[in-house]
Amino acid sequence: MFVPSRLSLARRRRGFTKVQLARMTGLTVRSLSAYESTGAGHSDPLPETARRLADVLGFPIGFFEAPELREITAEETTFRALSKLSAIKREQALSAGTLALDYHRWISERFRLPDLTVPDLAGEHPERAADILRAEWQLGEKPIPNMVHLLEVHGVRVFSLAEDYAEVDAFSTWDDGIPFVFLNTLKTAERGRMDAAHELAHLVLHRHGTTVLSRHLEEEAKQFASAFLMPRGGMLPTAPHFPSLDQLIRVKRKWKVSLAAVVYRLHEIGVITDWHYRSLNIDIARRGYRKTEKNPIERETSQIMAKVMASLRTDGISVVDIARELHLPLNELGAFMAGFTILPVGNGTEQIEPTATEPPALTVLRGGR
């Protein structure tokens, strides 16, 4: 049976309008609308038409015959600067997130993932909320070794955004009581950590519904992320007096954030003046450190995905097998984990690097769908 919502999902995932897809497949817009309709006007495409649609969209024919998926909507996500993001790009990202959630459901049927331990701190001042969370998670006032690992340990599921989403910073959403964070791995590793902390802010401060992220809510998330990654008590004792940009390069390496983030935080806690803040930002722009970083850190990876893939390989299950069961093209499945783990397609071996973060609990559940 042809599932209309899956055709619409695949079309939006590829960034096509109905007019574009109709032109590429030789169909009429009216016919395409009928195939996507879930109401009285619905009609199933003929088998050869369905295959043509599948070929153009780059999805296996089985994708369009699988059960309907619960789709992520813009109203339940934390997209930043929606006015600057085209509707097509937004729908592409949301569609990718929907497919990632289906992959997560497949994984959660086979593994017991870490329980959620993210508190609800709605109404707290962002700086105080960051201090409360650091205390609750027993982080002290030291630099956080790995933000991705930290989120995973506390029950947040972290996935990559596909590489064609350079316009999207990051976004988060909830599904059946589980928080998901999607990070853009095209950005610097330092920016990725700040994005992860920014989305964590939305999870703890704004979980009760933010149909449109206002400038105020975004500023709260920015303040929380800055304070969470660079706590006042840890920054003040070691902050250089009237620092130069070269001195701050050492500071940013310690806290694993961007130069711009360090300058912002030092200004926020009163270490540098307004004039000094402006001067340092001008110097950052002049040296080209807004898009690149001096002495960059390594990109953070997912412990959960590495452990999942290693366990599946032990059971003789490859990424190709997963993609086939989910009716996804292999590159689509890879997009969820791009930059976060090594994907075992053939008979290679996972490379799981040891870290200072306690590994997340992961129990294999026998069975599954």
Task: Report on this structure.
The protein is mostly helical and 369 residues long. It has a domain at 4-68: lambda repressor-like DNA-binding domains (434 Repressor (Amino-terminal Domain)). It has 16 helices and 5 strands. The protein has helices spanning 4-13, 18-25, 29-36, 47-57, 87-108, 126-136, 147-153, 189-205, 215-229, 232-235, 245-255, 259-268, 274-286, 303-314, 319-326, 330-337; strands spanning 111-112, 157-160, 170-175, 178-183, 363-364. The strands form 2 sheets. A 3-stranded mixed sheet has the order 2-4-3, sandwiched between helices. Strands 1-5 form a two-stranded antiparallel ribbon. Helix 6 (126-136) packs across helix 9 (215-229). The longest helix is centred in the N-terminal third of the chain and has 22 residues, at 87-108. The protein is elongated and about 75 Å long.
Topology:
Blueprint: H1 4-13, H2 18-25, H3 29-36, H4 47-57, H5 87-108, E1 111-112, H6 126-136, H7 147-153, E2 157-160, E3 170-175, E4 178-183, H8 189-205, H9 215-229, H10 232-235, H11 245-255, H12 259-268, H13 274-286, H14 303-314, H15 319-326, H16 330-337, E5 363-364
Parallel strand pairs: 2-4
Antiparallel strand pairs: 1-5, 3-4
Helix pairs in contact: 1-5, 2-3, 5-16, 6-9, 8-9, 11-12, 12-13, 15-16
